[in-house]
Amino acid sequence: MALTETDIKTFKALPDRHRWVSDGGGLYLRIMPSDRRSWIWRTKRAGRTSYFTIGDWPAMAVKDARAALAKRTGKATPPNALTVADALEEWYGDQIGPRYRVTRNIRGYVDRAVTEFGNRRLQELTRAEIARFVRGYGKETPVAANRCLSVLKLALSWCVEMGYLDHSPGDGLTRRIAGGEEQTRSRVLSDAEIREIWRLDSPNANLLRGLLLTGCRIAELQKARNEHAQGDWLFIPAGHSKNGKAHNVVLTDETRAQFNGANPLLFRNVSPTAVQAWVRRMQVGDDDAPREPWAGIRPIDKDTGKSLGPWTPHDLRRTFASRLGDLGIAPHVIEKLLNHTAQGVAAIYNRAELEDERIAATKLWADEIKRIVKRAKR
Fold first, then answer.
1. What are the residue boundaries of the structural domains of the chain, listed by start?
2. pLDDT in tens, 98-144
3. Fold adopted by 191-374
4. Burial class (CB in 10 A: 0-12, 13-18, 19+), 294
């Protein structure tokens, strides 16, 4: 989309971040929260993005900015010269980078699409081209191809909203072209598996027990420090939370018993990936054959009658939520304990801190774990 002076006058500054609007060919109008507007040339080489300021608007009109860029690069910037790479990078910079802390997977899908279509003019991209790309990707990894397609469709829909396209070439494409069938994971640990976790003797085991007792995400506990433990609560800063929202976690005596002594960090300081790998190795060998005692205590899938596969650290959070439901805890209380962003009617309850309900629920779960651990194996 070639910008006009009229277009530029209608753009509104965003209150909390820069707004980037592409004119094509690497020329962008950057609108700061202060409403200052500058012409920027963005170029990417060897995976690194460089930014060059050309001038400020309105002192430099759009036609003058194009001329200045042409003088710098030695080539003109024709109207409607926006490439797929330009569009995807602008979408990522506007919608993904500033809003999400964990962006590695989306970044990978964007890079893959840029490699395939990067120099293609956005307005010339067809549904058939996208379908061929996703189908070829699906022959390698069908589930990843599904997710890459979802990312592409989101980006192209945004291009329609921005006026870069009249309609999205991704419309009508479904996961059938990738061939990947994704299933929602619903792994909940059995009583026997919970007992085995309490028998483990490892700094990693302390972290696992803490996850099961609190329902926290693994990164939240691994970043927790002594100063975050405040009385009966563990404070999780916004920067440690996946959704960017600070919250408080109820601390029981059972949870405090898992702390890492007098160290600054409450739990062992290793990467989440290392803990996940340790959990898997503990349950299965290099040949994926189940190890004892886990092989004999895995729950059975009710639909297939087969033993379920190994559990992951995130399944401890799922177990926390599922078992609280079994204990009669109301859904809106569980959502608050998990620091989920509630929708609809639940959002009304979620405006309250529900401290008494959260304390009672967490203590009830800790007592239930004590009963499970003490219960003799059958």
1. 5-177, 191-374
2. 766 667 788 889 999 999 987 788 888 999 999 999 999 888 788 78
3. hpI Integrase; Chain A (1.10.443)
4. middle
